Amino acid sequence: MDKYLAIKEIGDGTYGTVWRAVNKHSGEVVAFKLLKRRYSSWEECLNLREVKCLRKLNHPNIVRLKELIWEYGTLGFVLEHMEYNLCQLIRGRNYQLFSEAEVGKWCFQVFQGLNYMHQQGYFHRDLKPDNLLVSNDIIKIADFGQAKEINSPPPHTVKISAQWFRAPEVLLKSSTYTAKVDMWAMGAILAELITLRPLFPGLNEVHQVYTICSVIGSPTMDTWAEGLYVAKALKYQFPQLAGINLSALMPSASENAISLIRSLCSWDPSKRPTAAEALQHPFFHSCFYIPRPLHSRPAVDAISQSDATRLTMLQQGSRMYFRDIPNSMLVNNFSPPSPSTGVQHISAQQQTYYPAPGRIAHGVSDTAGIFVNMISASQRQDVAQQELPPMALQQGAREYVHLTGVQWNAESEGLFLKPV
């Protein structure tokens, strides 16, 4: 973590703290997310759903993981930096509404990212304006701490998403919900972008259900029969409310915008559109769109060889971290894909190893405190200090894990490959 200098804390949540930081060697500004939980092994870190998800997903509208660092039990994510989140933009409008063209441009990009994510087998489960990041009119989905595999067997936890964007099936404690919870959240986000006010501002879970009923009307056997059966089993009775006309609630919204919000915020999850179907809605017909291929790819190829850099994980002593490998090195150092696996390998002779800068642990337990202490020490060094030269492998077991799914094992007598 010594290679990064913190500039400003930009977010503090239940599970982690996010800092704006700068790479002291390249000058690149990044977002540095430190998890508050402690992790006892590198394998435990790699098995986190958030890590698996970010390693697999590669899309222009999904925030990119640049490095992953595990140091003295602390896990840090180095992510691409974005200037704002949607919540900040909404609060800064001073009641001046966004144009519908702006709203459509942002939501169209989010639905593209969601469509890709769902096709890759994940749903987000915590979509809200705070987790949609914007820079130069590009919007990206972020914070995959609640993301989960769509095909994972239930039960699913009901402690997901911010309350105002929580789907009704989750509010009813259903543990078998689907990716349609993301679509409900997008309906609420779209409405908030249009009005600059939350659509369902409940005070607690019970009041949240009441608020939803007051806006879209209480569910019926026609609109959500399954939900009524679930509520009956819970001995809960929906308030009997007729709802209001969404056009009256959002007078600046077009008929197409109202239509999309109404379909996304359907009581019955099966009646909500998928992300791919939402992209075809007339609300987005004014958006210029060239489809990009969304074929499934294994996690090992989440970053193409044509990218400017290739991520590699390295371990040195008590540290484990990803490292950027320049594209020029990729061209020279990568062997052709294996005919049997299609996985590219780096030979022991070709790979260049860089040591993580050495540091003594000071026994600080607080995650943010560790990062700040490291930064304070680093500030006493020259920020423009040159990178340490390559270091030969020392004796003892160390692991070098490459994102293409090959694990390097440095034993006392040599180096060999084995599949992860």
Produce a short descriptive summary:
By secondary structure, the protein is α+β, with helices and mostly antiparallel strands. The protein contains 13 helices and 15 strands.
Task: Please give the structural blueprint.
Elements: E1 4-12, E2 16-23, E3 29-35, H1 42-46, H2 49-56, E4 65-71, E5 74-80, E6 84-85, H3 86-91, H4 100-119, E7 122-123, E8 132-135, E9 138-141, E10 148-149, H5 168-171, H6 180-195, H7 205-216, H8 221-233, H9 246-249, H10 255-264, H11 275-279, E11 309-316, E12 319-326, H12 327-333, H13 367-379, E13 398-402, E14 406-411, E15 414-419
3D architecture notes:
Residues 290-318 and 321-420 have low confidence and may be disordered. It is built from 13 helices and 15 strands. Helix content is 29%, strand content 20%. The protein is globular and about 60 Å long. The chain has helices at 42-46, 49-56, 86-91, 100-119, 168-171, 180-195, 205-216, 221-233, 246-249, 255-264, 275-279, 327-333, 367-379, and strands spanning 4-12, 16-23, 29-35, 65-71, 74-80, 84-85, 122-123, 132-135, 138-141, 148-149, 309-316, 319-326, 398-402, 406-411, 414-419. It has a seven-stranded antiparallel β-sheet, sandwiched between helices. By secondary structure, the protein is α+β, with helices and mostly antiparallel strands.
Strand order of the largest sheet: 1-2-3-5-4-12-11
| Helix-strand topology string | EEEHHEEEHHEEEEHHHHHHHEEHHEEE
Quote the beta fraction: 15-25%
Question: Number of helix segments?
Answer: 13
Ranges with pLDDT <50 over ≥5 residues? 290-318, 321-420
Q: Helix/strand-derived class?
A: alpha+beta
Rg calculated over all Cα atoms: 24 Å
Largest sheet: 7 strands, antiparallel
Sum up the overall morphology in one term: globular
How much helix is in the residues? 25-40%
Distance, first to last CA:
26 Å
Count of beta strands: 15
Q: What's the average pLDDT? A: 75
